[in-house]
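User: Hi! I'm working on a homework problem where we have to compare a predicted structure to a textbook description. Could you give me the structure for the chain below?
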Amino acid sequence: MDQPSIGWTLSELAEIVGGELCGPADLRIAQPVPAGDDCPEGITFAESPKYLAIVEATDVGAVLVKLDEANCNKPHIRCQSPREAFGRLLAITWRDLPLVEGMHATAIVSPDAKIDAGSSVGPFCVIEGGTHVRTGAKIHAFCYVGEQCRIGEGAKLYPRVTLYRDVRIGDRSIIHAGTVLGADGFGYFWDSSRHRKVPQVGGVRIEDDCEIGALTAIDRATAGNTRIGKGVKIDNLVQIAHNVEVGQDTVLAGQAGVGGSSKLGARNFVAGQVGIKDHVTITDDVTLAAKTAATADILEPGAYWGALVPRKSGLEKRIQVALSELPELQKRVLRLEAEIAELRGKA
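Assistant: Happy to help. Predicted structure tokens:
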């Protein structure tokens, strides 16, 4: 991690996180670092003896620890929640990509587009007619925004984001580099001789406070809208098909895929490489463990895990344990069959 040009004394950081200073007040700290890093101007955190031992073995400058920690030999700050305090330090050292307010001279903007004051349009962006970019929105270099799109207040489109026509981005939502919103849904029908394309004429609606990772694709609806609910967080490399609805505050991890017209409830957690079949309904408060294939509706909240048909986690774990014992069980069955056959022969 490169050294930033900013820094603080340990006493200043203690005040920022609301913690108790234990060490030299004037110790200079330049950046937060992960546990195990040797940066003498870094600060990390430790919430357990295991991680404190890792930190003690390094040359890191300081550490955030719990209020009752009495065995730390490094300069430290005692605080209620070291993890939360570390998050505050990350927030004050975070730097966004540079983008000057206003419209860059190389941007190509339709005269029929509306760009509100206080928004930013970066180099080599293209914005088509009928689009509205609202106050505080930031569109970074090389983005394409198609016709009849809406970019909400304070929303961010990072470099090379592509919006086809009729895509709406809610306030404060963030779309990371290379993501494509509104490409055609995967719709074809077989006419007895070849696959024919079903026209995809709908749109995409991303509600407020969403974040969508890099290189993710969310397809336009066949008709109507593909909808991503308020506060949804989507990782890199996720595929959302046409007419999908994702409920509020749901999280989807990398390489998950959701088939067309499926409906995900609120506060779901979809782990990496989960596959959700088309036209599946999943209720609120469901967790799908990594690589689960949801091939049928899930109508009861809880945690599910399964390679073919999703089952409650507890049941699936018992099945997996039983599968590991199958070779021994087979030997026992064969032995019992031989004994039964021998007994029958003596009868």
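For your comparison, note the following. The first helix runs from residue 10 to 17. The CA atoms of residues 12 and 61 lie 15 Å apart. Good luck with the assignment!
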